[in-house]
Specification:
The complex is a heterodimer of chains A (766) and B (188). With 766 residues, chain A is mostly helical. Helix content of chain A is 68%, strand content 1%. Chain A has a two-stranded antiparallel ribbon with strand order 1-2. Chain B folds into two domains: 127 residues, Sandwich (Immunoglobulin-like); 33 residues. The longest helix of chain B is centred in the C-terminal third of the chain and has 22 residues. Chain B is elongated. The chains are: A mainly alpha (766), B alpha+beta (188). At the A-B interface, α1, α2, α3, α4 and α6 of A face α1, β1, β2, β3 and α2 of B.
């Protein structure tokens, strides 16, 4: 062999391995199905773990393995190279369908999924949400009908036959939507088909066990007939495969015959092996042993305590560590100092400066994600209170905050002013101004808390704190007492007053009377001060505190707090206005007005429009809704307006989340070139920053934003409905005006989600 | 037996299936290479267009993964009034500029692809340049681009979740009322 020939052979071999590698790596990651099936697995695992402790013989490890393998088979069918090449090779497409119809469904059902899924879901949701459906006789009958062999068997066969008709198969190959529907039909009808065969406990069979033998044989007959037709047809039935690129040595006809043979063999195994097993089981004299082995065992389940983050191994002890908060705060303080210095000394181009990137994109997004996943973690890591604590060593505060100012009105004004100046002065585009805001913030925290005792700055002034307090009303965790009885015997109230080792709550929240997250900075002082170790970070239903309106420690009732209502209204409407000012149609309109009226007049006009939209409009609309609800219920307009306005918080938070999602996915890597630039400026490296960073925005981002808005609207409507029911026997007229307001805001949010966003503070690769 | 419905719902809810690679819109051969071009969505609408390309050796049909593929779009009909604003995840390069295809774009790693910006409807010419070793050639395909898709028509299933949840809640209330009626003292 000559050198030239050898080179060509090596090259061909290299290409071959490259192609094989490409084939094996042809996986897709799509967040929605992966997250959905992962959630299904987590819910099952949570329920299975409980049931395994109570009924180990009924729920052994094999059930868990079976269920998870079944879900894995679904993922494999939909995300693996099987899916990537299904459109080119019928045999691959057939393997995909067989996984969905003959592998995944029986494995899932062998996991006896009903009870673990119910036990794994939050109990109030199962009791109040699903309970009425689960106890409905009509649905009971419908469910039995769906899985009756006389219905499920023919439906499965019909679905199989129908989707193999060339016209329908071609329809699915040519359309993503129909392809999804086809897979849904396969998996759905197969789950129903396999139900009477597996008969997952505790369901009861509709027919004697022996009837499953002919049931499976009929299904096999259909499978054999279809497979034989594909194998011996002699012409390509599905035209798409004759025109598809051929990536193997198989011709389209060979591919079809192979698919038929594969269907024949694997289908027969899938139907005949269980039929044989059932026959053996039926003939075995000890068949009833298994079904009675748990008869004498008590099936009562232990009451479940809410999840407590502080009891989680590693995380709990770390969070309770004395220096955990100062450690977090010092990290954020260093970041704040870096932002400040770069803002003052670095280039005054927002996407190239830390002050243009971190505070306006990453800090906002990470705070919102933490609020959604846990709670008010930003206030826990607040650098301003850290500076304040250091400052207090020199200026020990002696005065109490004036009684006349003990409300949120100052915070409302500061928050609205902050949003206004953000737009009016384009703060996001000025690193210099951003740095000065941080300086003012540090100065404000040190000054206010240097004069006044406790955390007056956090409670009455800090706009970031107010933003977090409102958002955390829908957080899934809350700092609260573990056992109420323990507090009833406590005489020292260390959680509030503190002791010689640990200060108490600076925001004057007395744990036994605390409800919800309003005014809670997650500082964990109460956790460390409690001598009974009775305070934890417990899981709560998001928005729970917005329904009932108890007299909360240091907060009172929401219905009696117009300042709190105003704060929430500013928070909610600012979410929509802030997003609107970044979408292209509104930007175009602004530029058009600016061209006609001049930039100064236009700026003034937009400033007035902003104040109207964030302050005047929400208060007017809330008053109108409150008035209408009060007329319908005969209740007090102030109570209704205050209480119901606060119920809009979930929708506002959803809008903030939806908005920051577009920023963070687009510009998540934007701090990287800025960091490289700073190191180069400091003389630590000659590498020039590459400003062309890739974007992580994806096609489904709009869908994610819509889902967030859906969740916000539904939670908001649910809270409004529950509140309406609580104040009037005729709940609907009370509910209606507020529901209309929430729906109108939701519609605005959807429109905004459809618009391209001006990515402030981010340079993305074209 | 209500559980079958529950189990089915829980299992089928996350089952939004994966995007296909699109529909073949062009096939051509040049020397020892064969090229198949896929587009998604078809019919093509103004907005981002997902274009993927399979390059194969002829006559072995061996897929080629080391070729460089670049795209360019040029409007060949009159300007249209229905301009569409492109989202951040799509290239915003002006018409006529070259956009390089990447194998990371698709799930199917035998394909190279990219999202191409089609800012308005009308007739567009998609030009592909394929470079592999000594082979360097361009081919063009004409695309008839329809008006932009109504985003409501694309995303309505997610928006419909809210009315659906409302209907389920109302149904739940009816079931509770019926159950109360059934268990009322003296009621049958």
């Amino acid at each position: 062999m000559g050198i030239h020939e050898k080179r060509e052979t090596d090259s061909a071999r290299g290409r071959g391995s490259l192609t094989a590698e490409s084939l094996v790596l042809s996986w897709r990651f799509e967040p929605v199905p992966v997250i959905g099936l992962t959630l299904a697995a987590l819910v099952y695992f949570r329920g299975w773990r409980r049931l395994h402790g109570q009924l180990p013989a009924r729920f052994p490890v094999e059930r868990l393995v079976s269920y998870l393998t079944g879900l894995g088979a679904v993922i494999f069918a939909l995300a693996s190279p099987l899916d990537a090449f299904a459109g080119w090779l019928l045999i691959v497409h057939m393997a995909q369908h067989l996984l969905l119809t003959m592998v995944a469904p029986p494995l899932i059902l062998l996991g006896f999924p009903m009870l673990p899924l119910l036990a794994g879901l939050p109990r109030p949701f199962v009791r109040d949400g699903l309970g009425p459906f689960l106890t409905s006789p009509a649905l009971h009958r419908f469910g039995r009908f769906l899985v009756h062999p006389f219905f499920a068997g023919p439906l499965f066969i019909l679905s199989n036959l129908a989707w193999h008709v060339p016209a329908l198969y071609e329809l699915a190959l040519g359309s993503q939507g129909w392809h999804q529907f086809e897979h849904l039909c396969f998996l759905g009808t197969a789950l129903l088909f396999w139900w009477p065969v597996v008969q997952p406990w505790p369901s009861r069979p509709a027919l004697p066990r022996w009837a499953m033998i002919p049931y499976l044989l009929v299904a096999d007959l259909q499978n054999t007939a279809l497979a034989a037709f594909l194998s011996f047809c002699g012409r390509v039935i599905y035209p798409s495969y004759s025109t598809a690129p051929r990536i193997s040595g198989l011709s389209a006809l060979d591919d079809q015959a192979g698919a038929g043979a594969f269907m024949w063999v694997s289908g027969s195994m899938a139907f005949l092996v269980p039929a044989g097993y059932i026959a053996l089981q039926y003939l075995s004299p000890s068949r009833s042993k298994y079904f009675h082995e748990n008869a004498g065992r008590k099936s009562s389940l232990k009451p479940r305590r809410p999840f407590d983050l502080l009891l989680v191994p590693v995380i709990g002890p770390v969070m309770r560590w004395k220096f955990f908060r100062p450690f977090l705060q010092s990290i954020v303080l260093l970041l704040a100092l870096a932002v400040l210095l770069d803002g003052l000394l670095g280039p005054q181009v927002s996407p190239m400066n830390l002050a243009g990137v971190l505070p306006w994109v990453h800090w906002g997004a990470l705070t919102a994600i933490a609020l959604l996943a846990v709670g008010n973690l930003f206030c826990m890591a607040c650098p301003f209170t850290f500076a304040r604590d250091i400052g207090r060593r020199m200026f020990p505060s002696t005065r109490t905050w004036p009684r006349a100012l003990r409300s949120k009105w100052i915070a409302v004004a500061v928050l609205a002013g902050f949003f206004w100046s953000y737009e009016f002065f384009n703060l996001w585009s000025s690193p210099w101004w951003t740095a000065w805001i941080i300086i003012f913030y540090f100065a404000g925290a040190v000054l206010v808390d240097g004069i006044f005792k406790n955390a007056s700055f956090c409670k009455y002034v800090c706009p970031i704190g107010q933003f977090n307090f409102i958002s955390s009303l829908v957080s899934p965790m809350e700092v609260r007492v573990r056992e109420a009885e323990v507090c009833s015997t406590c005489k020292t109230h260390d959680c509030l007053r503190g002791n010689s080792l640990q200060r108490g709550c600076e925001l004057e929240l007395f744990q036994p009377a605390k409800s919800g997250n309003m005014d809670c900075t997650f500082c964990l002082d109460c956790v460390k001060a409690c001598p009974h170790d009775n305070v934890g970070i417990l899981a709560v239903a998001p928005g729970r505190d917005l329904i009932a309106d108890p007299r909360r420690s240091s907060v009172g009732r929401f219905a009696q707090r117009p300042d709190m209502a105003a704060l929430v209204l500013v928070f909610v409407f600012a979410a929509f206005v802030n997003a609107a000012t970044m979408v292209t149609p509104v930007r175009d309109l602004q530029e058009g007005v600016s061209r006609v009226a001049g930039s100064q007049a236009s700026g003034m006009a937009w400033g007035i429009v902003f104040v109207f939209s964030v302050v005047v409009l929400p208060i007017s609309l809330a008053w109108i809704c409150g008035r209408l609800s009060a007329l319908a219920s005969g209740g007090d307009i102030r109570w209704i307006t205050n209480g119901f306005s606060i119920a809009l918080a979930p929708l506002g938070f959803a809008m903030w989340l939806s908005h920051v999602a577009s920023h963070i996915f687009s510009g998540i890597l934007s701090p990287w070139p800025v960091t490289v630039r700073i190191f180069r400026d400091l003389g630590f490296g000659p590498v020039a920053p590459d400003w062309n960073i890739p974007t992580f925005a994806f096609e489904g981002l709009t869908g994610l934003q819509i889902l967030l808005l859906d969740a916000g609207l539904l939670l908001c409507l649910w809270i409004l409905w529950r509140k309406s029911r609580d104040i009037s026997g005729r709940a609907f007229p009370v509910f209606l005006p507020w529901a209309c307001l929430a729906t109108a805001l939701y519609a605005a949010g959807i429109w905004l989600a459809f618009q391209p966003v001006d990515l402030r503070g981010t340079i993305v690769m074209p | 037996m209500r559980a079958p419905i529950l189990s089915l719902l829980i299992l089928l809810m996350p089952l939004r299936l994966f995007a296909d690679e699109g529909v073949a819109v062009g096939q051509f051969e040049n020397g020892s290479l064969g090229v198949t071009v896929f587009a998604n969505p078809v019919p093509v609408h103004a907005g981002p267009l997902d274009v993927t390309v399979l390059v194969q050796e002829i006559p072995s049909n061996q897929p080629v993964t080391d070729a460089t593929v670049v795209f360019s779009l040029q409007k060949v009909s009159h300007p249209s009034p229905d301009r569409v604003r492109l989202p951040a995840w799509c290239s915003s390069s002006p018409p006529g500029s070259w956009i390089e295809a990447s194998s990371a774009h698709s799930g199917n790693k035998l394909l190279s692809g990219a999202y191409l910006p089609l800012p308005e409807s009308g007739r567009w010419q998609l030009t592909l340049r394929i470079i592999r070793g000594a082979s360097d050639f361009t081919e063009s395909i004409l695309l008839d681009v329809a008006s932009p898709r109504n985003l409501l028509a694309v995303w309505w299933p997610l928006i419909a979740l809210c009315p659906l949840a409302g209907a389920l809640y109302a149904w739940r209330a009816i079931l509770i009322r019926r159950r109360r009626g059934r268990f009322k003292p003296g009621a049958g």
